[in-house]
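Sample A.
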Amino acid sequence: MFKLPKALSQVVGVQLGNSGELTTALPKNINNLKKWYDQVLKSLPKQAILINSTTSPVWPYPAYIFKKATWAVIDLFFFLPNLTMTSGL
């Protein structure tokens, strides 16, 4: 459930740790995100709905992670065939 922000952050050159730490990394190719997404869909039963979280209580807000890419990330959420949620904790 929390793998989507990690995968997206790698595309913009940020490594997001499990405890919320951010480190700079080389940006990954967007094809890595596509491969990750395809693997997730293969692991689900047919017609399943996946709810992806965009944040968690231990992680910074998406705007802090993605910076200038935040609006592109939000736009991406609307085109995914699954649901996204933002934790309000």
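Sample B, a different protein:
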Amino acid sequence: MRVFVLAGGLGTRLAHAIGDRPKGLAPVGGRPFLERQLAWLASHRLTDVVLCVGHGADQIEKALGDGQRLGVRLHYSREKEPLGTGGALEQARPFVQGPTLVVNGDTLPEIDPWALERSRWEHGAVGALALFRLEDAQASGRVECDGDERILRFVEKDTSHRGPAWVNGGCYAFSPALWESLPSGASSLERDVLPRLAARGELVGHAASGAFWDIGTPQGLERAERRFAK
């Protein structure tokens, strides 16, 4: 299973902490975050990785090279202009060879990726999303599923919500059919593509028992630093 890592984000919210470095190279526990992601993938025997890069692409390639020292083989799909998460995947279409794992470049989930793909395959779905339960989901968007784990809808952040909910952990297993649903040009996987697939009953949620680490905000970066500090 080939892995696509969406690592083209600007990291604007982290500028005070990481300067002009791309978000994926933010140091977490003394190690660039992307290195931690790649080590996690390698630990699950996922070693064929496409990095979808944009801002700071040269810095990322200089830091990671071909991935050999990290136990993976890296390919690079470069954006010439910001394309969003959906557009980055559409541009990387030539790298698609079969079922794929897609991971946000600022997310590290505690999950078995092969269990996620197995859930997708068993349901005959186009995609499976790793879902994590938050006890207080007021500040997060929610994912609602039916009794058969089919995703019914994505609910935007709702400050009136109280209590727990399942949230998107930024880790997905997809069949090649995903690429037939990606629009050309810039798009958002989360806003433009996943809701349409859910409306057609083509997405399932896979409940994860572990935690996930999202460094996309200063608070998330600080939380991950505490977790991985030496």
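Observation for Sample B: The longest strand covers residues 165-174.
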